[in-house]
Amino acid sequence: MVNDPVSLDPTLVEDGGAFKVVANTMQGLVGYDGAGKLQNQLAESAEISRDGLQYTFVLKAGARWTDGKPVLAQDFVTSIQRALKPGSRSRLAGLLSPIRGAEEFHAGRSQELGVHADPSDPKKLVIQLGRKATYFLQALALPLALPLRADILSQNQDQWPETGPSTGFYRLASHRRDQELVFEKNIWAPASAPARVIMTIVQDESTAASLFDQGKIDVLSRISALDQDRYRKSGLLHTDPLSATYFLSFNLGKPPFNQRDFRRAVAGALDRKELTHLLGSGETPARSWIPVGIEGYQPFEDPRPLFKDAFVKIRGQLQKKPMAPVAAAFDTSSRNSLVMEKIQHDLLQVLGLRLSLSNQDWKSYLGVLFTDPAPLYRFGWLAPFLDPAFHLHAFVTGDPFNLSKWSNPVYDELNRRIEAAEPGPERDELLRRAQKIVVEDEAIVIPLYHYVQNTAVSARVQGFRINPVGVVRFEDLSLRTAP
Fold first, then answer.
1. Residue ranges of the alpha helices (H) in 70-202?
2. From CA 467, how far away is CA 40, in angstroms rounded?
3. Dist. CA 43–CA 123, nearest whole Å
4. Rounded to whole angstroms, how far apart are CA atoms 401 and 186?
5. Distances (CA, A) of 473 to 57, 82, 434
6. Count of other CB atoms within 10 angstroms of residue 172
7. Closest CA to 468 of 236, 297, 331
8. Is residue 381 within 8 Å of 247, Cβ to Cβ?
9. What is the mean pLDDT of residues 134-139?
10. For the chain, which terminal residue's Cβ has fewer other Cβ atoms within 10 angstroms, N or C?
11. Which residue ranges form the domains of the chain, and what is each CATH number?
């Protein structure tokens, strides 16, 4: 692992590292298996009404916490109420807004929320929606919908302890900040699964590769292009698709990107294919905000001609009157440095726009992004569930992940229609229109490439696979015994 998770409180989980941890320590109603298939976890059955407005779950009779207590429907009521309560710090809670009464509940105007444990059956959970949302079952795979116990929260001042009771195949036994996380197998995990799993946190790629080569770690998740070649030749490299997009975006409150033409000119100046060739790691150039494998994805065609008008206009302005360097920010890594230095070079040479680059560690960078981002910044967007709603929701007016603070009522209405629409031609057209607004017309986001996950895996590890949401299921793994 490259960075320590920002938070392992299920209600607050939002970064990729934390998703990978919590997916192994907790099971919810539903979740993704190692192949990326949505399946029941603690739910024995899941029934959706014909109008799509009521979800009824019956929990498995044997579902329990690691301290022996049964998992009850009320545990899911507790977690969803906690995510939606007034003052909640969950940035993903908006994805639960289709629940009946959710917006009024979150605003503190009502105590009524359409999530109930059946009074006659403590294992039966009923969720009622106020509006149809075809993504909703997948949203219940998010950490904020995992079960939480009211007694544990009460004992810990409404904080969820990292090493508290769990419902997954593993529990977090210890966590040394910025060093390692140690997991121990629960009794209901497969017998073949490793008894312990240690996630070592190493930021430097060469240091991590050295540890792998020495046999001190078995799985290497961040690899330089040079090392990838040798691991591929030795048969140790796994390459898996990842539903994520690497992108640039803007602070619309700061010049010059408060001007639409400047944003579109930048989009028209960057050669995405050349960038992925430079990286040499198998990434695919992007014109689509929605990544490969998710409905609405658009195959790559060089988008630069779409922005020719703005590009010619702004280049002419900068030739006549050069600007002072514009601040551009990124989180520290050798890969991000390579990308941003390439962008800095290209914008100067092609457009005449100078950038001043700055970088910060991951946690500090996130803090700045959510308060006062630079005029231009880089970020990555990983889909934790396989519906385009997650990618599109990030640009809805007022959404916490709308870092640009952009607002467009036409886009907001399109998003509402997309959320309610069934997969098919009508939804495809709505997705096309929504993406066109944010990527082409307004250039709020500049998709650069879609990720792949390159992983070096020791020959002694069996059953390794990464699903499209970036999770390795520990219970799928086993270790080859020495001859």
1. 73-84, 102-106, 136-139, 150-155
2. 16
3. 9
4. 35
5. 24, 27, 34
6. 22
7. 297
8. yes
9. 97
10. C
11. 16-155 (3.90.76.10), 170-240+453-479 (3.40.190.10), 241-452 (3.10.105.10)
Mind listing the pLDDT tens digit for each residue in 305-317? 999 999 999 999 9
H or E, element range at 197: strand 196-200
CA distance 324 to 186: 58
Q: What pLDDT does 460 receive?
A: 96
Residue 483 above 80 pLDDT? no
In whole angstroms, what is the distance from residue 372 CA to residue 403 CA?
9
Residue 272: in which H helix or E strand, if any? helix 272-279
**Count of positions (residues) in the chain:** 483
Q: Are 173 and 198 in contact (CB under 8 A)?
A: no
Backbone φ, ψ for residue 159 (5° rounding): -105, 140
* pLDDT of residue 114 exceeding 80: yes
The whole-angstrom distance between residue 85's C-alpha and the CA centroid of its chain comes to 23
Is residue 225 very low, low, confident or very high in pLDDT (cuts 50, 70, 90)? Answer: confident
CA–CA separation, 82 vs 397, rounded Å? 23
Alpha-carbon distances, residue 9 vs 65, 80, 162, 198, 447 (angstroms): 16, 13, 7, 19, 30
How buried is 79 (Cβ within 10 angstroms: 0-12 exposed, 13-18 middle, 19+ buried)? buried
Q: Could you tell me the pLDDT band of residue 224, with boundaries at 50, 70 and 90?
A: confident
Residue type, 238: H
Question: DSSP letters along 281-312, please?
Answer: SS-EE-S-SSPTTSTT-------GGGGHHHHH
pLDDT bucket at 100, cuts 50 / 70 / 90? very high
Q: Does residue 482 register a pLDDT over 70?
A: no
**Distance between CA 397 and CA 388 in Å, rounded?**
17
User: Is 437 in a helix, a strand, or coil?
Assistant: helix
Ordered alpha helix ranges (H), 51-93: 73-84
Residue 409: exposure state from Cβ atoms within 10 A (0-12, 13-18, ≥19):
exposed
Q: What are phi and psi of 393, to 5 degrees?
A: -65, -20
Q: Is the peptide bond before 194 cis (omega within 30 degrees of 0)?
A: no
- Report whether 102 contacts 136 (CB < 8 A): no
What pLDDT is recorded for position 203? 87
Query: Number of C-alpha atoms within 13 angstroms, CB side, residue 8?
Result: 22
Query: Do β-strands 237-250 and 376-382 pair in parallel, antiparallel, or remain unpaired?
Result: antiparallel
Note the pLDDT tens digit of each residue in 302-353.
Answer: 999 999 999 999 999 999 999 999 999 999 998 999 999 999 999 999 999 9
